[in-house]
């Protein structure tokens, strides 16, 4: 059964750090790439970080240099290390397998969505 379970979100002050985790079951982790999406209230979901199954990475401009995506294939887990967080990073974060290259809004996925994990950056 294909399933995505995200965790690790929370409330953090500006400049702080968080590490998100996503466990992918079923055939999801066999996809060509895995990515982290985020959706702020009233906005379209956007893909902010991608890692291919060969380890290549790509980031949206808004998070480049602050976020790092990684994967543990033995555990079918994808991570997102977020540092120097800003209030504009506040969103629900989801992982999934993007079905075409690139980052940003409108990148479709192969699978349905998990429950996501809330990240709130506020003082």
Keywords:
four-stranded antiparallel sheet; 123 residues; seven-stranded mixed sheet; 11 strands; mainly beta; 0% helix; globular; 47% strand
SSE arrangement:
Elements (H helix, E strand, L loop, with lengths): L2 E5 L2 E3 L5 E8 L7 E7 L6 E7 L4 E3 L7 E6 L4 E6 L8 E6 L7 E2 L11 E5 L2
Quick overview of this protein structure:
With 123 residues, the protein is mainly β. 0% of the residues lie in helices and 47% in strands.
What does this structure look like?
The chain has 123 residues and is mainly beta. The mean pLDDT is 96. The protein is built from no helices and eleven strands. Strand 7 (67-72) and strand 8 form a beta hairpin.
Which regions have little confidence, pLDDT < 50, spanning 5+ residues?
none
Average pLDDT number: 96
Distance between the ends? 40 Å
Largest sheet: 7 strands, mixed
Query: What general form does the structure show?
Result: globular
Which structural class should the secondary elements be placed in? mainly beta
SSE pattern: EEEEEEEEEEE
């Amino acid at each position: 059964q294909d399933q995505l379970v995200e965790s690790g979100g929370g409330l953090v002050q500006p400049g702080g750090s968080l590490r998100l985790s996503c466990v992918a079951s079923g055939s999801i982790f066999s996809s060509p790439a895995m990515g982290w999406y985020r959706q702020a209230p009233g906005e379209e979901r956007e893909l902010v970080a991608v890692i291919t199954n060969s380890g290549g990475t790509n980031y949206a401009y808004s998070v480049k240099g602050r976020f790092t995506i990684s994967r543990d294939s033995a555990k079918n887990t994808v991570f997102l290390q977020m540092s120097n967080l800003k209030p504009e990073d506040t969103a629900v974060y989801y992982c999934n397998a993007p079905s075409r290259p690139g980052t940003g809004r409108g990148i479709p996925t192969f699978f349905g969505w998990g429950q996501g994990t809330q990240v709130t950056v506020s003082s």
